[in-house]
Design a protein that fits this description.
With 232 residues, the chain is an alpha/beta fold. The protein contains seven helices and seven strands, in the order E-H-E-E-H-E-H-E-H-E-H-E-H-H. Helix 1 packs across helix 5.
Length: 232
């Protein structure tokens, strides 16, 4: 679909990948970008319209759908990493990850599906991860929430096909954001994630494999488990 002249809503738009999405949309000519943030009073990105949006709050989601009733692109970017290691610690963080990453995406998608349908179909973009496909014992709750979000993305793709909505899943390894400052591994820049996602939307592509890590893990899904979880 055409990004120039579109109207977009981005969740979790205040920083990191969400802010990169917001800037990329504006740079490519979006007519309006609603920036879903928890504290609109603290958000001041030129060209973007801040909308109060906690993706775990049904009332705020409904209000955002009413405000952004002209949206043709919705990007589910809001996400957290809060869970414990696999074998110790409270499970409260893992519950929060499921609430935001999985159920939050589901709730926003459900609220905006009729909006997109009314505006010609448009595009629904879900910010996923390599963790959707490969478990991580450092962040098991996060990986589980992203696996659930990937399954949801596939369900949405099938369900929204008849209304003409392009559903895009974005997969990437580590991205250089506040959430990964303690991770000692190669990282890609948020602007690269946003740019490749904009390219995919423009070319009606349903899946984005941002980096080599995403491409390698995606290819390994059809092989033996040892490709995903090498023993040596």
């Amino acid at each position: 679909m055409e990004i120039k002249g579109s109207v977009a809503l981005v969740t979790g738009a205040n920083r990191g990948i969400g802010l990169a999405f917001t800037r990329a949309l504006l740079a490519r000519g979006a007519a309006k970008v609603y920036a879903g943030v928890r504290r609109p009073e603290d958000f001041n990105e030129p060209g973007a319209q801040a909308v109060r949006l906690d993706v775990t709050d049904p009332d705020q989601i409904a209000a955002a759908a009413a405000t952004a009733s002209d949206a043709t692109i919705v990007i589910n970017n809001a996400g957290i990493q809060a869970g414990p290691p696999l074998l110790e610690g409270s499970l409260d963080g893992a519950r929060k990850e499921l609430e935001v990453n999985y159920l939050g995406t589901w709730a926003v998608s459900r609220a905006f599906a009729p909006v997109l349908a009314a505006n010609g179909g448009g595009a629904l973009v879900n910010m996923l991860s390599v963790a959707s496909w490969r478990a991580n014992n450092r962040f098991p709750g996060y990986a589980a929430s992203k696996a659930a979000q990937w399954s949801l993305t596939n369900s949405l793709r099938v369900a929204l096909r008849d209304q003409g909505t392009l559903v895009v899943g974005v997969h990437v390894g580590y991205v250089d954001t506040d959430a990964t400052v303690t991770v000692d591994a190669p990282k890609v820049e948020a602007v690269e994630v946003a740019a490749k996602t904009m390219d995919a939307v423009s070319h009606d592509e349903p899946e984005v494999l941002v980096d080599e890590t995403a491409r390698r893990v995606r290819a390994a899904l059809s092989g033996p488990l040892e490709l995903l979880y090498p023993t040596a």
